Amino acid sequence: xxxxxxxxxxxxxxxxxxxxxxxxxxxxxxxxxxxxxxxxxxxxxxxxxxxxxxxxxxxxxxxxxxxxxxxxxxxxxxxxxxxxxxxxxxxxxxxxxxxxxxxxxxxxxxxxxxxxxxxxxxxxxxxxxxxxxxxxxxxxxxxxxxxxxxxxxxxxxxxxxxxxxxxxxxxxxxxxxxxxxxxxxxxxxxxxxxxxxxxxxxxxxxxxx
Length: 209
Known about the structure:
This protein is mainly alpha-helical. 20% of the residues lie in helices and 0% in strands. The chain is built from 6 helices and no strands. The radius of gyration is 24 Å and the shape is elongated.
């Protein structure tokens, strides 16, 4: 039986025998030497199936590319596949991030930060995305998102963590409540060491109290 588009589904049972991105759903039976299949971009990530097959990335995974990930053109026939994915695992789809002006490849660039849940499904796209988010430290407190009790609170972290003094979220916070932001505080963990201004203390801060 012929398979004109190389998607692994014979023409007789293929609902779109000339579209290599529409088949019976089986993965791994594609004819990777077929020029029609090679020229298509089934996952909508901006790289053709042939390029991904040659370079070792996954032509069926919109978050797996062989080079530096880039936002594909909306005119790509399968842009919607890429747009529906969440490549950085931050809880917002790529398409939502493009529309909102955030970075779909940065787990810390998001409109509404939310703590993500480990899907515990090794080898899946969902797990790969979560792992990217979990490894990042969005609030700069030195505790990766995956183990941080509050990934968006730079003052709530696992004991022993070393803050990233270049992180703007951590810099702007005042973890010791002395009224001096961490970024300019001579000792951001000592409420008795600050910029000398009196009356700007956060009297509700447990460390200052």
